Amino acid sequence: FSLEDILLAEKAISYIKQKSKDVLSDSIYVTLTDHISIMLERIRKGCDFDYTSLLNIKQLYHEEFKIA
After folding, report:
1. pLDDT tens, 8-57?
2. How far apart are CA 62 and CA 35, in angstroms?
């Protein structure tokens, strides 16, 4: 991961901790940083996003989606 990815994930995790009532697993530091890193790379490469998946994610993970 780049330092930029790690710092962005840290900010996101701090925000999530403020907004969520759930206790977060420590693994979020690795998994969210990995997710952010992959998404930034896809954006840089101009990859399209699958909006059908987005709708499914929104329904399956309503609370998490709202926080995101």
Report:
1. 999 999 999 999 888 889 999 999 999 999 989 998 999 988 888 889 98
2. 18
SS (H, E, C) the chain: CCHHHHHHHHHHHHHHHHHCCCCCCCCHHHHHHHHHHHHHHHHHHCCCCCHHHHHHHHHHCHHHHHHC
Contact criterion met (CB below 8 Å) for 9 and 36: yes
CA dihedral for 4, 29, 51, 45, sign (positive or negative):
positive
Torsion of CA 45, 48, 53, 55, to 10 degrees: 120
Enter the pTM of the model: 0.76
Residue 19 CA: distances (Å) to CA of 2, 16, 47:
26, 5, 30
